[in-house]
Amino acid sequence: MAPPVTLKHIAEEVNKTAVTVSKALRNHPDISKKTREEILRVAERMGYTPNLIARKLSSKSTRSIGLIVPHIAHPFFAQSIEAIYDEAHRREYDIILMLTGEDDGLEAQHIQSLLSMQVDGFLISVSETTKDISIFQNILNRGKRLVFFDRVMEGLDCSRVVCDNYQGTCDLVTFAIKNGYQEIGYIAGYSNNYIGRERRHGFEAAMTNAGLKIHPEWIIEGGFSQKDGYQGFMKLKGNGPLPKLIATVSYNVAMGVMKAIEEAGLTIPNDIDLIAFGDSEFNHFLNPALTVSRLQSREMGRRALDMLIRAIDLDDSESTEIVVPTELIIHDTGLNKKIERR
Amino acid sequence: MAPPVTLKHIAEEVNKTAVTVSKALRNHPDISKKTREEILRVAERMGYTPNLIARKLSSKSTRSIGLIVPHIAHPFFAQSIEAIYDEAHRREYDIILMLTGEDDGLEAQHIQSLLSMQVDGFLISVSETTKDISIFQNILNRGKRLVFFDRVMEGLDCSRVVCDNYQGTCDLVTFAIKNGYQEIGYIAGYSNNYIGRERRHGFEAAMTNAGLKIHPEWIIEGGFSQKDGYQGFMKLKGNGPLPKLIATVSYNVAMGVMKAIEEAGLTIPNDIDLIAFGDSEFNHFLNPALTVSRLQSREMGRRALDMLIRAIDLDDSESTEIVVPTELIIHDTGLNKKIERR
DNA sequence: GTGAAAGCGCTAACAA
DNA sequence: TTGTTAGCGCTTTCAC
């Protein structure tokens, strides 16, 4: 295989030096139009491809940002990541994506790799298992910018873009209450975790605001997955008489609950009703489709990237927070009226 | 911000040269255990982070591969990409992911960028709009390895990992036929495209093998999206009496068809039945859940990466093809018996 | 076992 | 407008 064409090769071809060629190819104003055009032509003809590795080393600028998330096969992440990529492309930044699979060790490893790759900043949605703050502190100490999105790290003064976990849940549950529901259960996430706690508070606020009694035996703690939802409903059922409506901490949990409800031979929404925080693209194909508080995934991704790049460009280390509201999407549940199955 | 620690700084600290430090940190056998341990300790203490950009330039090896796909918010891509990342991590390669959004211009741009980044190879699922082969030929001409997965480029002798579009569709339709269906329609993708054509042939083969008549007015060409499915059913309905069962070229198309069927006031599977090529994680929550030919997304991703790395390591430019079979997943449709709605 | 020399391909600063 | 010099941080080769 022919060795790649470099600036020097082009320089020889046009009887100029590598510096001149370098400038010409980058449209540096130094170079005369005539020379530039000749160089461009020759470079094209020779099939020149700039070596970004060398350019980055020399210029000490990478225009790249590290993106770390737990998964991509997940409605929120898939969409927010797409938005981040789109926006980064528009601003001529490269994204280097790494996946943790909810493994904090891997997360720390990826941060090291990305630091080694000299990224200008980090966009991180932390893994469920992450406890140690020092890795993130380390990023900040090196003068790199860091923005958390959705899954933030607590105890660290750092920029973040989150959805309105509290208000979103409160609105969702309030909607059901306004429709006449009073006996409401909640399948919660872990409350030692920011998102789980915020959403749970939103649930409790909705109940309290409406003067309704919160039944501790109707609040089940667990994780955020389908399996957790399934098990959550089982526990709930074991606790005695069921509530009339269940709200869940996440869409995945609602799916697990739905499965368990079906297996129990009950019907949604007539026997027991179900609403959820979150959403999925397939929701409106379900029967019944769930009333949900939907995250603005793309918007969150876009704004997180925007915030990061702004911090990089302005060399601004202030921490800011953006709370993106959720949207209440009303479908066939949480309505408290018997509906005819389609 | 303190300037980053380099090999030279460590070298000064331990009264050795940068070369020695470099070797020690990479566990080069040259270095004595004593020296290495001291260097490791000092590097740790000083918070040394290797500069990968410099290392890559100097060593002329990046151990990274470019991954180009149309989307990630898509069941197949999300899963296959996760598998690719996992496998790459295991083999200590970096993945640089770029998204085209089905835009062939962007695709070409990304290929250029990745070449500039000196990736060792490419893993590509081409965009729907891509026509021009020369960009891919260009990769090969530079001696880089390229493996297509799922969405392959025709007219190019190149390695690929695909699912069994033909057999998967044939098996799916044959299943319904064995259950007694005879009047079967097909909402196809574009037939000027590899995938669309293969699947359509699979449909036709199933019909022909069973000695059934293929009604041209029951085969509707279109794209692969939900919208295409919706419109496809509308067209089908406009063509006169409906078939008893519809098979679709993709799961998304089936979703569109499902919506259109519902809006037409018909019921699946009793009024008209529906089966699909593809799958989604939410399928079993649908009522009815569709009988489908499922792609082994993770397996396909894993094998594509494996094939690529093998080609890179062995410096092998032979083209090979892997066809990963699909799995017939039987749910509530394609059974040709009246079922009680849950 | 350690280090000196050279260079990866490019760019920044300055000189001509 | 163009070129010279120097160096980015690291690795490779080869001499000691």
Compose a concise summary of this entry:
With 342 residues, chain A is an alpha/beta fold. Chain A contains twelve helices and twelve strands. In chain A, helix 1 (7-14) packs across helix 2, helix 8 (165-178) packs parallel to helix 9 (194-209) and helix 10 packs across helix 11 (251-263).
Please give a structural write-up.
2 copies of one chain form a homodimer. Chain A has 342 residues and is an alpha/beta fold. The first copy, chain A, has 3 domains: 7-50, lambda repressor-like DNA-binding domains (434 Repressor (Amino-terminal Domain), Orthogonal Bundle); 64-162 and 296-324, Rossmann fold, CATH 3.40.50.2300; 165-295, Response regulator (Rossmann fold, 3-Layer(aba) Sandwich), CATH 3.40.50. In chain A, 43% of the residues lie in helices and 15% in strands. Chain A has helices at residues 7-14, 18-25, 33-46, 52-59, 75-90, 104-116, 134-141, 165-178, 194-209, 226-238, 251-263, 297-313, and strands spanning 64-69, 94-99, 121-124, 145-149, 159-163, 184-187, 219-220, 245-248, 273-277, 291-294, 321-324, 327-329. In chain A, α11 links the parallel β8 (245-248) and β9. The mean pLDDT of chain A is 94. At the A-B interface, α4, α5, β2, α6 and α11 of A face α4, α5, β2, α6 and α11 of B.
